[in-house]
Amino acid sequence: AVPRVIFSGIQPTGIPHLGNYLGAIRNWVKLQNTAAPGDTVIYCIVGYHAITLPQDPVHLETERLNMLASLLACGINPKLSLLYNQDQVPEHTELAWILNCITPVGWLSRMTTWKSKLAVARNAGSEDEIDESMLNLGLFAYPVLQAADIMIHKSTHVPVGDDQTQHLELAQDIARAFNHKYGDDLFPMPQQLSTSAKRVLSLRDPAQKMSKSAPSDKSRILITDDPAAITAKIRGAVTDSITEITYDPEGRPGVGNLISVLAACTSEEPTLDLDAIGRSYQGRRIQDLKQDVADAVIAKIDPIRKEYERIRAEPSWLRDVSEAGTVLARERASRTMLEVKRTVGL
Ligand code: ADP
Ligand code: NA
Questions:
Q1: Closest ligand 1 atom to Cα of 159
Q2: Pocket, ligand 1, Cβ cutoff 6 A
Q3: Same domain, yes or no, for 222 and 182?
Q4: Which ligand has its closest atom nearest to the C-alpha of 210?
Q5: What DSSP letter does each residue of 140-182 carry, written as one string?
Q6: The domain spanning residue 287 has which CATH number?
Q7: What is the pLDDT of residues 173-195, one digit of tens each?
Q8: Residue closest by Cα to atom 11 of ligand 1
Q9: Complex ipTM, two decimals?
Q10: pLDDT at 331 over 60
């Protein structure tokens, strides 16, 4: 088989929650552990993406270490994966600039993430109420930086959620545009590696996904939550007034979310029959289901929390890991930049 270069990134904007873990990071670990000998697996913490929104400098530095410790605690192994901070590898932004110069503005205007940020900033759709400070050029162009993140490593496979499909398609368009313009097959077409993981929903509002940015702490379980906190949050999860337990993700998203979290925490098997799990609770109370969900989440998360605390207490080791990753990533990235600049005539 052709060797794969697997690449993904995550922003240092908060401790990962259960959705990040079950929906993304767990799959990263699995890809790392099942990679073929010739494959390269690369995960990076994307600080340059984080600053497209306002960040407090001292806080950001802490978040970068928190995210590194989180990924290590979840099972990313720097001996198996290239793990580093994007903001320490200037080739990412250097390539992004070159890609900016072949990317039509119209491609970026069409991004739904941009359109929704625009809609928020344009209070009630009135053009003259744009908050200029929020709509910076970096926020507009960050999908190009994402394309550069992928392309700087000549990545072939990108494990990201469905919410990122449009951005990955943009990266493909940009790679194609570069290859076409310069008549070279310098960049492979990056393929999306989707997971079958179900979206984890907010524990306070099951119409929303679990998210770092939701106002209520009770809406999400962090990988650093202790057993008491996890139990309290699951007990407080919003469901509905029907006493019978059934798996009906559309009609009863709150209960459906509990069943799907239970399944995800007790098995890595994506084809697990969620209806059958629902039926197995026939005649039992929602409190029983919640207790089982809490136990399953604790069994999954508590070893990660303990590992996180152990690792986070060693900032000098964390910095060593980060620096070793930087050296390796710069080696790879500068090889690509040499080719790119030669191709472009710089
Ligand atoms: P957040 O929305 O909490 O800020 P990010 O956008 O940083 O999370 O997402 C990081 C990764 O976690 C992405 O691959 C994303 O698809 C995944 N992810 C985020 N929230 C969830 C969720 N609630 N359920 C499953 N996966 C999620
Ligand atoms: Na997000």
A1: 14
A2: 10-11, 19-20, 23-24, 160-161, 163, 199-200, 209-213
A3: no
A4: 1
A5: HHHHHHHHHHHHTTT-SEE---GGGHHHHHHHHHHHHHHHHHH
A6: 1.10.240.10
A7: 999 999 999 987 999 999 999 88
A8: 20
A9: 0.94
A10: yes
